[in-house]
Amino acid sequence: MKIIGDILTTTRDELPDSQGASITYLIRKANIPHGRISKILGTLVSQGLLEQTNSDGAFKYKISTTGREFLQAYNTFNKFADSFGLTI
Amino acid sequence: MTEFFFESILNLVGFAVGIVIGIFAAIGFRNTGSPTLFRLTLAFICIGIGFLIMWAGLALDMYVYHSSEQIGWIQTLGIAVQTLGYFFIAFSHTIKSFFPRSNYLRSVGMVPLFLISFMSIENIIRSISFILLIYGAIETTMSYFESRRKTALFVAGGLGCLALGEFIGWYYFVFPHSILNIASISIKIAGLVLLFIPITRVPLTKIKFDEKF
Q1: Which pLDDT does position B96 carry in this prediction?
Q2: ipTM of the complex
């Protein structure tokens, strides 16, 4: 759950260019292996939380409107869970 | 009569706080799919229902049976449901060493529950509640030292107050007709208010809730 939050936050706040963030950039930011992040990105795209674009033969990722709403809810409820000493 | 009044307030405040936090956690679960929020939902719904059962028991005594003696099994049921809620809070802190590993000890540990009266079962359940609440309070305090989030202190204080209330409430059985019961109830109400504070700090207006809620 935290990884998803980190990926969505990166694609919202720390985009290297307007096309979106590449897998390599996200791997460096989220610090997780390629195989795992590919699966997570696939799930996030299929759920409509990320938008995938093809730029110069490489996939790039940007947060969608649904993703922004999810991230807002995630941050709010993360604070709530944090009050109980828990992480969501 | 005074004790009935105070206990009714405690139980109704407990019901309201439990259900409101439970619904809030449920909304969080529907929006994020987090298992932690699902456990918190179960925990606070159980706590709220437990308080409601205890209030129903008191109301039955007062208005239906017109008896000053509380109906044992309803109180025990209410406390048991609350304890289940406290268990889910402790379980969320990845409780690992609470239950004995040996199957023999586990099976023997259940035997007394079938041999003793409702009053004794109530005392046993109260003591389990006390342990779970202390565990939750300690874990939440530890998390405060990591995150420095002030709301964690309110939750730790709330769980600690509920634990102290349980402890003093248990002492009331040793010294009945003393002020201990009122003290226990007041401390528990303070604990519930402290537990509710984190909800008031959440910027609810900024959340787009699930349409089904």
Answers
A1: 45
A2: 0.75
